[in-house]
Amino acid sequence: MTALREGSPRIVRREDYAPPAYWIDSVDLTFDLDPAKTRVLNRMRVRRNPDVPAQPLRLDGEELNLARVLVNGQGTSFKMDGGQLVLEALPEGTEPFELEIFTTCCPEKNTQLMGLYVSQGTFFTQCEAEGFRRITYFLDRPDVMATYTVTLRADKAKYPVLLSNGNLVDSGDLDGGRHYARWEDPHRKPCYLFALVAGKLVCRSQPIISRSGTEHLLQIYVRQADLDKTEHAMQSLMAAIAWDETRFGLPLDLQRFMIVATSDFNMGAMENKGLNIFNTKFVLANPATATDTDYANIESVVAHEYFHNWTGNRVTCRDWFQLSLKEGLTVFRDQEFSQDMAGSPSARAVKRIEDVRVLRTAQFPEDAGPMAHPVRPDQYAEINNFYTVTVYEKGAEVVRMMQTLVGREGFARGLKLYFERHDGQAVTCDDFAQAMADANPDSPLAQHLEAFKRWYAQAGTPRVRAQGQFDPERGTYTLTLRQSCPPTPGQPTKAPFVIPVAMGLLDHQGHALPGTERLVVLHEPETTVVFEGMDAAPVPSLLRGFSAPVILEHDLSDDELLVLLAHDTDPFNRWEAGQQLALRRALAAVRAAGPVHEPLDGAFLEAMRAVLRHPALDAAFKELVLTLPAETYIAEQLDEVDPQRIHAVREAMRRQLAHALHDDWVWAYEQHKDNGAYRPDAFSAGRRALTGLALHMLCLAARDNGNPVWPGKTYQRFKDATNMTDRYQALSALVTAGHELGQRALAQFHDRFHAEELVLDKWFALQAGAPDRDGDALPRVQALLQHPDFNLRNPNRARSLISTFCHANPAGLHRADGAGYAFWRDRVLEIDAFNPQVAARLARALDRWRKLAEPYRSAARAAIEAVAAHEGLSTDVREVVSRALAD
Questions:
Q1: CA 253, CA 576: separation in Å to the nearest integer?
Q2: Which residue in 272, 549, 238 sits closest to 393, CA to CA?
Q3: Which residues, in sequence order, are CB contacts of 49 under 8 Å at separation 6+?
Q4: Could you give the residue numbers annotated as active site?
Q5: Which architecture does CATH list for 1-101+121-157+178-184?
Q6: Is the CATH code 3.30.110.30 the one for domain 754-887?
Q7: What is the pLDDT of residue 8?
Q8: Which Pfam families does this one have (predicted)?
Q9: Which fold has domain 463-555?
């Protein structure tokens, strides 16, 4: 940030960790809130760390105006060293002393949205990872934990609601139309979990009684116009509280638990102790404005932030390299919660497939690119750049593998031991793994603990090569598994991982072979498993449930994959077989010379027809199977990428599916279009998902044959829809197909929802992600930049248009004339000037530029070099582009 923009960025290394020279036991903060000049009085009780040699106290600060410093009530000397306040003349010994610091800051000019800032007349904070230093001088590191008392004072008419962490202990009026509120948090916490909110907000309140009989008050604060959109978030919060107490015995530990929603927020949400601050995207929902995806995301994110109350707050990270200690573990917990909320085994499988799809399309490319890093990174220049899918989603897979290796009950034992040992502490990923192993001493995890911890230390996606050999004379089937992992930046060679491979065998008629289901723990470069009593060569079903985050390589024939697609009892592998069949055909067409014709053969199309018409499969599962692999996922399978060729191939595949299965899509639509009153449950959402896919296919076919029937029906459904899911799917089908009715529907959609910020984000995103036809995507996005409703400084709006285009529209971004890269360059630099976090995430869109074919590669490199050469570039963006250009 500002203090780091001069010269080379400071590199922070995990190996350099040292305990703090001082501890802060308690913090008493008083805020006089004013948008232009907020006064912050910080009284701390500080003591020397006896385990560290005596040295000055160095406190972090950024963009603060320092007014005074007192030690035990007396003035003291100090000096500034960069962004740090350095105090040398401190009391000797280890007895606590009082340190008082008075500063001012300007929240209304805080465009970074880190620290204390103002959004639409309301004060908010965001302190993770290093935002608290923008509020007051402090030891801004997660291993310094203190109790907090906070007094907020402000104009009562402008800021009637004053919130902070913990419990409200006092409030009242002051002279001059002002008032105050005093909050105490009984739990020690690091400063990154501090929060305050002040503004004109209304509240949905819900008293509850926990399983243990204690009373609690749940509250969700929003703007008045949004109060009717908070019911689902409240229901999700109550469900999460009940689930955590039931599944893991973890109760709510505060009298009051609050959620506040804001539309200006860099992240999705923040788990500040007792006062969660959320992006409105993950709080607000009603059937008229939110889709099934929104409802599911709200349930998941509300649960995620609540689960942090224990896994992140009660036990936190020793340092930021341990970020996955809280994030990977909590993502795993919210995934388990969502699966349990889904209910049926099929719905649980759909959730698992959706999670794996994110991992493969986002994390696997990250693991193969210039920003590849271990789940526990070794170094960083800007910690905000490491809130990544590797830390979160791959970190969750590491935790999931632990549960696989110790069992569901064993995992609960391990988590219980973890809290018994470390409640109230700041610890490491190793501490968590050790607790899991110690609670399950006879498990494969305990037997291979040191090797298993390589998942935290080594970057890259392991590859598992499976080869089977049937011996008809002996009646045996021998399965050999070999593992390897490609080099990643700073790690040219990798030691073997511990990889749990869940598996089973089927015969060629699709019957499961008894006694063949097992968990193979691959912990060496190679292992062999022998199955006896085989009458014929079986069909192996490997990596069931995606039991490890690896790339599985095998020699299964199309016929064997068709057997798995039609009959495997494991839903994940059933879906995966369909994906592999589609991927093979896509890659063959991409690699072939000449124009793209019809990549799909009759066998594949008949298999898809059979899935679509299958009487026993859930609609949500059918929709997943019939959705082709993404262009970005196809690109990752190639050494050299021509984005336009991939786009042409995938579009040809979609058109084939649309035409060949036309009557089946009509059947699917008619059978699933009516669902009665809106309910966001998994069954109803699955029916709507399949209906939406059918409309997309029918409109796509109509575009080719000029038949107006289905675009007309889709437009009518758009107008008549009683919920946002149906309305948005119909709109998307028209826009994606490029039908002229799509433009009319877009205009009507805007007219109807122009006052709904989150709905307008969908409107922008749909147009940004619409397929590129003859180079029309970039001009469309450039025109939308000038739209009166576009606001570059709002993170949600910037992401909806610019990030959607750069990250999710490959054919639009990767133009042969380089114009897409120039657009990316200009937007990265423009956003970096006021919000480096958002800019750095946008900069990641060209991570994989080296895989591009010419002329794309040279043009992309030139754009990245132009960003890197810009003076005044933030540390956030500089780290991303420097790593992208590094040899």
A1: 42
A2: 549
A3: 19, 20, 21, 22, 23
A4: 305
A5: Sandwich (2.60)
A6: no
A7: 60
A8: DUF3458, DUF3458_C, Peptidase_M1, Peptidase_M1_N
A9: Immunoglobulin-like (2.60.40)
